[in-house]
Amino acid sequence: MSRRLFVTAPAALAAITGGLAPSLAKAQGTAAPAGRPLTIGIGGAVTSLDPHFYNASPNNSLSMHVFDRLVERDAQTRLVPGLALSWNPVSEKVWEFKLRPGVKWHDGRDFTADDVAFTIERAPNVPNSPGGFGGFVRAIQRTEVVDPLTVRFHTAAPSPLLPTDLGSVAIVSRHAGAGAGTEDYNSGKAAIGTGPYKVVSYAPGDRTELVRNDDWFGPKQPWARVSYRFIGNDSARTAALLAGDVDLIDQVPTSDLARLKRESRVVLAEVQGVRVIYLTLDRSRDGAVPFVTDNAGQPLPKNPFHDLRIRQALSLAINREALCRQVMEGTAAPTGQWLPPGSYSYNPEVKPDPFNAERAKALLAEAGFPQGFKLTLHGPNDRYPNDSRTIQAVAQMWQRVGVQTQVEALPWTTYSVRSNRQEFAARLTGWGSVTGEASYTLVNITGTYDAAKRMGTNNTARYSNPALDALTEKATATLDNEEREKLLQQAVKMAMDDQAFMPLFQLVNIWALKRGLAYDARADERTLATGVTPAA
């Protein structure tokens, strides 16, 4: 996409020379500081500057430069103070947050508890959101502004994970956000945060230019300006780094890893991530499903994916070890659930489904498809490492058990919208459990979609299991950490036994940087200018 929302010729010149676009400079009351710029090349497209529009990693990474949260997470996903200095339960159903004094919005106005109350109201109600933030505030029944620096959240039931949930919700201002839509954030009008950087310009599908906020309450940032660029093509991203056009890239192509490790001008930063790459099968329909037919090309009268045997067969047909070895080239690990080993609520009893083509064929026959059927597997081609290669490999594996599979890989900006509309029968996507525990997925991915209850926000397949929902609700309301972990582990097993979705592998997060720089590799895969420092 080449259309720019508020980039003008003066703005583009300002970004190159280090100055702010005149209109935004006036609105934010600042001039660009002197100092070294930083250029970042990301592999996933940012779809909006609205921090509540879409809960996707590229959007969230950019948002974290401009907006802060009450509670932040460090590189290991541990909770640390953000706009709130402390948080404590004052009763079983009330949390009190003490806010940081002296914080200013980018336009110089004071941050107060009223902005928090506005944010909690806005976050779950953004029109046309393809996957928003309602799940993180679902527990809150009422927000009480005690004083300008104290806010209390009243919940319907005990909510021990509320601070963890609020670590995912960017705080926006009432004065800039009241009556503002996503288009107002994208235009820059409402993109007024408290974060370490201010927005200069935003060009969807291309780049966002940022300038340092010298009034930020956090540590002084070494980068006066940041150019946050989308470079979706793997080869182009690596080439940009080697040519010196960018200082850092994420989603390092696996095919380039060996070369980059030998390259004296480059250093790598890596860490085990919390993102699972997985497949989902449409559960939104009882009748015919788009992109699914019999072998003669006629639509099937009933949705085959409601049959557990079909879901099991398709999972058993996948050789996860081969995917990790041949497609991911050793940068991923096979998994049967969505958290890496060692995480709170990881269930060691839940193993990856073993590759068993013969058993897959037998299950298909038992389900009434001894000759298989036809389907199309959809996925993005510019969002996750080797995403299009992965769906090609899975399609070949399904072909071998009799499921004639075509593949259609699409740009993320198109794919995400169509997926949210339930247009696909089978699809590949990814989900990062940035909270480091199981409820994040249970609420947002496997929870029955219910806008009123703010459940299943990212459940695009529309999977539904009332027993799993009940167990999730019980677990998230359990105060005792050990008991809650046991309940979450039970829920993990229930979801995976029912093939709520098909986990394929866990990613290792890798960044490549110019020598002389260091990056604090993050398990949540966020790519942040605040994590880049000149090497000691």
TrEMBL record:
<keyword id="KW-0813">Transport</keyword>
<protein>
    <submittedName>
        <fullName>ABC transporter substrate-binding protein</fullName>
    </submittedName>
</protein>
<feature type="signal peptide">
    <location>
        <begin position="1"/>
        <end position="27"/>
    </location>
</feature>
<comment type="similarity">
    <text>Belongs to the bacterial solute-binding protein 5 family.</text>
</comment>
<dbReference type="GO" id="GO:0043190">
    <property type="term" value="C:ATP-binding cassette (ABC) transporter complex"/>
</dbReference>
<dbReference type="GO" id="GO:0030288">
    <property type="term" value="C:outer membrane-bounded periplasmic space"/>
</dbReference>
<dbReference type="InterPro" id="IPR000914">
    <property type="entry name" value="SBP_5_dom"/>
</dbReference>
<dbReference type="GO" id="GO:1904680">
    <property type="term" value="F:peptide transmembrane transporter activity"/>
</dbReference>
<keyword id="KW-0732">Signal</keyword>
<dbReference type="InterPro" id="IPR030678">
    <property type="entry name" value="Peptide/Ni-bd"/>
</dbReference>
<feature type="domain" description="Solute-binding protein family 5">
    <location>
        <begin position="79"/>
        <end position="450"/>
    </location>
</feature>
<dbReference type="InterPro" id="IPR039424">
    <property type="entry name" value="SBP_5"/>
</dbReference>
<dbReference type="GO" id="GO:0015833">
    <property type="term" value="P:peptide transport"/>
</dbReference>
<dbReference type="Pfam" id="PF00496">
    <property type="entry name" value="SBP_bac_5"/>
</dbReference>
